[in-house]
């Protein structure tokens, strides 16, 4: 392993993901609910990227400004160049957008551009403006699946310690013409390291073990084997994600291809981040439209566990609610 990729670790450091996994923290409902993803190829090391890098800090400011005006949740990420995927003197930019209708995958765009054009393309993508026409010569075919594995040790050492070996295994054993595996920057949930995002589907995974990578990558075996590793789908809000996992457990692999949308029908207003209960509806249809329906579900808090938000010697434990689906009904 390249030593420049790993943050030095004290012998007395406690890894947040080890604490989380040992205490049985369920990762479901921890996927961030995004409208757009802007992913930029950027050489390491990755320090305080969004505040110090001369281009990235401007992009981050633009994203924040759009959030204030439009309410859109936009996630910027960086990925490390790859000896096979990357090309000299150009930068890869991946962009994913939520469709305005029920969906199974985010809509992808991909570009290979001169590095001095990163900012201009990023702003054109964020605005979906006519300026995008200038970048048509740099547009790349889409249809590739991209696994983004967090190895960002500058943010939390657990992501480097546990993320890098999973990245290596995925890159060496599973990557092929239509499946790329990347090292990426922090996207939340250190305590679930090793953690990854599967794009364009937008599914988050955490507490990963080498033994379940076949199931995850190839959509093989029983879906229940992946239950405890599933953080949720970015197309839904956290409480909807909890219901969606239960539906997936019943419907099987075909569920991943169904077009879906969610709605929170009612929710406990006493705790915005960790409500005691919620009632949701998940609408769905098969790709050919022959199967349509909806599930309604009630989600309830069911006990607590202690977790640690960040790795370190003196980090304290936090108590977090765990959830179960107490009622799930399908209507066709």
From TrEMBL:
Gene3D superfamilies in the cross-refs: Glutaredoxin
Pfam families referenced in this protein's UniProt entry, alphabetically: Suc_Fer-like
Domain of life the protein comes from: Bacteria
Native source organism of the sequence: Oscillatoriales cyanobacterium SpSt-418
CDD domains named among the record's database cross-references: TRX_Fd_Sucrase
Name of the protein in its database record: Sucrase ferredoxin
Transmembrane residue ranges: none
InterPro entries given in the database record: Aim32/Apd1-like, Aim32/Apd1-like_bac, Thioredoxin-like_sf
């Amino acid at each position: 392993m390249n030593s420049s990729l790993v943050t030095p670790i004290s012998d007395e450091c406690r890894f947040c993901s080890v604490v989380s996994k040992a205490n049985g923290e369920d990762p479901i409902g921890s996927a961030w609910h995004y409208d757009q993803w802007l992913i930029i190829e950027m050489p390491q090391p990755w320090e305080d990227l969004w505040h110090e890098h001369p281009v990235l800090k401007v992009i981050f400011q633009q994203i924040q400004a759009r959030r204030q005006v439009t309410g859109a949740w936009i996630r910027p990420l960086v990925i490390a160049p790859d000896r096979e995927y990357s090309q000299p003197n150009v930068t890869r930019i991946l962009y994913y957008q939520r469709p305005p209708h029920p969906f199974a995958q985010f809509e992808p765009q991909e570009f290979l551009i001169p590095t001095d054009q990163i900012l201009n393309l990023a702003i054109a993508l964020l605005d979906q403006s006519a300026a995008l026409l200038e970048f048509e010569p740099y547009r790349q075919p889409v249809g590739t699946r991209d696994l983004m594995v967090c190895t960002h040790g500058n943010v939390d050492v657990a992501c480097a310690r546990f993320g890098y070996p999973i990245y290596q295994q995925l890159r060496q054993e599973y990557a092929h013409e239509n499946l790329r595996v990347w090292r990426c920057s922090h996207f939340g949930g250190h305590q679930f390291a090793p953690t990854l995002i599967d794009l364009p589907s937008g599914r988050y995974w955490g507490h990963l073990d080498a033994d379940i990578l076949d199931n995850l990558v190839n959509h093989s075996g029983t879906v229940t084997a992946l239950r405890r590793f599933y953080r949720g789908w970015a197309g839904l809000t956290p409480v909807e994600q909890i219901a969606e996992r239960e539906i997936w457990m019943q419907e099987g692999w075909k569920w991943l291809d169904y077009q879906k949308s969610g709605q929170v029908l009612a929710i406990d207003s006493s705790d915005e981040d960790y409500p005691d209960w919620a009632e949701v509806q998940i609408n769905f249809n098969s790709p050919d439209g022959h199967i349509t329906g909806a599930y309604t579900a009630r989600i309830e808090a069911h006990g607590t566990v202690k977790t640690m938000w960040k790795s370190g010697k003196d980090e304290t434990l936090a108590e977090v609610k765990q959830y179960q689906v107490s009622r799930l009904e399908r209507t066709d």
